């Protein structure tokens, strides 16, 4: 059987080349999203680093050495005041950039990256969203997209800042006394220890991440509305609190597992940097200044700071590499997602003006399943025919709907107007359907937008009201503060209206009445309606769909009586086909199921 394969992300250690390649890939995406963002950030960061060096090191050396050699105070003060004016001007420009231009451009970058990701997400087939491995990798990568833009750019800017600082201080040390470089290279001795500490820290974070996710999930169940009823009616608070505490306990265990090693490594690297480098150079500089008299006061002070800067650059290099490696890991998720080629693709053939939908020897198996969900289906749905597909839960009815809509491709052939549906442009083919799924969702948008399932355009208000009237929800909506423009749910509007389960279902059904369709598919659309409301809904729908095909999926057989033809499914196969009267005469599975349901309705009525 045909199986769609979700492309899997390869995990593990990355080579230096892979780390550089992934980070460059993302930097190119950022540049494409906003060409001025990186270039302006690079210029501002370079200016800041140069100003910081001149202020903290060069001007201090100039002033102290000037005093040491007897330079007039007026000269020193004048130079310092001129530099102060320059620094104030630069600080104003930098502040304007950081507080205004940078946030605007960063937001623009994030929005464009998200737009690119969302457009790609809309292209991938439904299987990706039903595959746990996809959800754990690609969807998580989408969540990282915007934050990672700032992480990657900041990592680059941090390298630039430290690079400029390192080169400036390195040049100053060579100018003052090249012997001082010996002290600067002392921290190189502890880079292996620093690398080891960074690797352990990374491993610790990776182990903690899964537990943090578990802990966060348990936390969300206490405040998200979708869990509110179950959390109050059952013993779920006790269970979720226990899971929350267990995750917290495991996080503590992970911290303890790595804590002693990390403390020892950080102590050794810090002491080596502080004691061997900083203290040694201090002793040497003081001896040259006070003992030998061959170094000025300004040089004595600034070399200690410069050696400290160079030493920390060496020790921080491992951490910077680890940051680029971490970025590369998440970028690999994103690259895999963006490079993923959907298996459900559209063609270029023109849609016919009409025709039947025909399935010939269609079988389908979900990825990872042991057997087919649908087996050798041969079915026909006429362009103006009303067809019911019935059967117990798990018979394969909803999977059939997914194939008709080309949310999946299957083995066998599905044609529309005698042409294979894979030859049609995907969007145009799906546009011939109006669908109400059993697991529909209400969006935190206006009533009108939920009816149209797009932005309601000016002049369409009466069309929306008529659709609501047909579904039986208009009178309810007229009581809303802004009628059809009232927002639903309280996700973003505290005055948003809440609908009952039955009202939500009527709202979903109203979408069918809002447009002209070639086929209407109703997948268990009446599960939240009582039998009378269900009958009225189908009766109204039959009238509305006189000039189009109608396919309704149900395990309630009372609605099937109205159909021109009925398919009875069981175990992924069509086991009976015919009209209601014909199937009742056959006295098979359909007739048995219909009588049982009719008996249940009668008992309830009594």
UniProtKB/TrEMBL annotation:
Topology within the bilayer: Multi-pass membrane protein
Transmembrane segment boundaries: 36-55, 75-97, 166-190
Localisation per UniProt entry: Cell membrane
Keywords from the named record: ATP-binding, Membrane, Nucleotide-binding, Transmembrane, Transmembrane helix
Keyword set includes Nucleotide-binding: yes
Keyword Cytoplasm set for record: no
GO cellular component, one term: plasma membrane
ABC transporter domain residues: 357-596
Pfam families: ABC_tran
Gene3D superfamilies, A to Z: ABC transporter type 1, transmembrane domain, P-loop containing nucleotide triphosphate hydrolases
GO molecular function, one term: ABC-type oligopeptide transporter activity
Main location: membrane
PANTHER family named among the record's database cross-references: ATP-BINDING CASSETTE SUB-FAMILY B MEMBER 10, MITOCHONDRIAL, ATP-DEPENDENT PERMEASE MDL1, MITOCHONDRIAL
Protein name as annotated: ABC transporter ATP-binding protein
Organism: Eisenbergiella massiliensis
